[in-house]
Amino acid sequence: MERKKIVTAAMVMLLGVSAMAAEKDNRTQNFPLENIQLLDGKFKHACDLNITVLLKYDTDRLLAPFLKTAGLPAKGESFENWIGLDGHVGGHYLSALALAYSATGNEECKRRMDYMVDELKKAQDKNGDGYVGGVPYSVWNSLAKGDIRTFGKAWVPWYNVHKVFAGLHDAYVYGHNEKAREMFIKLCDWGINITSTLDDTQMERMLDIEFGGMNESFADAYKLTGEKKYLEAAKRFSHKMLFDSMKQRKDNLDNKHANTQVPKAVGYQRVAELTGDADFATAARFFWQTVVDNRSLAFGGNSRREHFPTAKACTEYTEDREGPESCNTYNMLKLTEGLFRMSPDAVYADFYERAMFNHILSTQNPEHGGYVYFTPARPRHYRVYSQPNQAMWCCVGTGMENHSKYGEFIYTHTSGVKKADDKLYVNLFVASKLDWKEHGLQLTQETSFPYSESTRLTMSMKKASKFTIMLRHPGWIAKGDYKVTVNGEPVDVSASEPSSYLPVSRKWKNGDVVEISLPKRITVEKMPNVPDFVAVMCGPILLGAETGTANLYGLLADEGRWAHIAHGPLEPISSAPHIIGTTDEIKNKLANMRPVNGQPMHFTCPELFSQKEFANIVFKPFAEIHDCRYMIYWPTMTADEYNTVIAEQQRQEAEMLQLDKLTMDKVKPGEQQPEVDHAMQSENSKKSYWKDRSVRDASNGGYFSYNLITGGETSLTLRVTYWGDEPAGRSFGIYVDDKLLANENLSGKWNKKAFMDECYDIPADMLKGKSSVRIKFQSEQNTTAGGVYFIRLVKKQ
Fold first, then answer.
1. CA 82 to CA 192: how far, in whole Å?
2. pTM > 0.90
3. Residue 108 pLDDT more than 50?
4. DSSP run (H or E) holding 541
């Protein structure tokens, strides 16, 4: 069946001003992370393994960019990987140490955290103005002068330094380092000063460049100090391009870089939480709603090639190597948790559970602890993993943090006027122990969920205490299937609905036991906007299947700039397992899935596939699947369709796979990350969208260029995709390292309303002895170069 829409009518009603006022008495609070202890299970294993990985990193190398920028001697060499973004992982690492210490009490994490704070303070003191970061002063000097163009040529400066803001904040909040609080406030003051000379227009131009969660950081400073200048800074960093659309409940996310937008919404939520501002609440909620309901895959992740696709472009999820990015889900969980604090609706917990159990848990290799960047949804592709002190991707940074945060949302609480009015929310079914000091309660949750279908809560307390336990009735349990007992006696659940909380109020005493039955069903979810690809779910758990270990190139990533991408050959979808049958036939077959003896949540379903070689495929939780190719989305067809179209699909796909095999490098003009990855340079150039595809051109003597890898090959062809019906004035030159390769004129060249590919053979002397070349599209006065929709360097056959 289709996944039920997550946002309910009740949630929509909460978007008004009156609802904001009503919420104030209904807000929940997080427990301190140190008050929640994970017990044996996959989440504790992930948390413990992550600390082992964290302690393998060279702290002095992570500190090097901050000390160098301050003119101080560094104790280690900077990491070469992603050198233009030097410093961002150091900020994440500081947050990770604080979180790990808070979650486990690990003293080495505490020692390293304090050491980092001390070293960063040396840099901040030397700078003298509150700044501490790896971005050179020359970049910030350009910004202070209002030179946004020069500022924008650096690699996302605010995004980079935001990780230091967050790291210092976390070192104080989670690690209780008072020095970090003082440094955080000084850094916030520096941020306000450096932008004080910008007018509103300059500010918005600056915010067009990815800036991480700077609005969240300033909101956090407001919470710590109560000083309104920080609140005003948070609002100033709110980027009207997104904020104005979201507060009007208009989805303008198509083709936008996903993880540029999600942290903005986190900031909107923080402002709303601290001020009750209805516009910020609406913006945050609507962003969450449209991403979760319309733009997320079955495991909770979103984006392909780091961008939100249009509805028509969602087929690229099934085609591309670069599936949802781990950073996006890290930030979506932060947003979800914040929205829940404002209004504890179970739909937030439903999404949180899905994303945490499926995506976040799966992004850590359970053997060596490496982190994952992209999770492809393409059938029979694979993921690659980071190694300590080599890969310094953004998803290494968020990955360092993710696995210490599993305890943070298991329980939340409200504090009433009277203690008897307090509520304890049980949000997630994870083996854990809670210390609720206000009620003298230690609550132990015993469960092996999702491998079992129940959880048991046991109260340990010296003195009886009256309060209400709010037990989550997940959206994946039908009305009537949800069962609860207290001390063996059934609780009346007749009024309980899926995606809600069941209140159980009483005077709780030592030894009381609550048991919750959690029966799971097998369901099918269609890929957003691609209904002929489906995922198989067991309750909230995505079931996948291993499909082989051939050609897992780069499984353990090195320091290569693009080593986070699984570059091994694509396998044809046409020969992948297909689920054959009508929708009803597929449901009936899945209802008869057979458990594998001795392996909980492992199933077979031989009758599901017409191809005999796939009869023994084993479905199991996706978070268990590592170091192999896999399936999580399955192509579906009726038997007649399969017999009719599969041969043509095989022919078309053979051509595509051959092209992919011959491709040395490629770039998608107009998309932020591919252009950054290929060191785009430009003058009088703009990007736009046509026929759901991004495009770039340049006019009146302008140009745009990209650095593409040749792999040392000297027999290459440049293959460029254009629109086949361009108007007059589309003549331009194409250059390789500033040497003319070809003059092109697109005006009237094809007169076809279709995308067309043109190939240009590159002379060997332009390639000899080079590992990369710069491809430039140069316009003349009164002409336009492009538009260009796709660029490939392809080996000649």
1. 28
2. yes
3. yes
4. strand 541-548
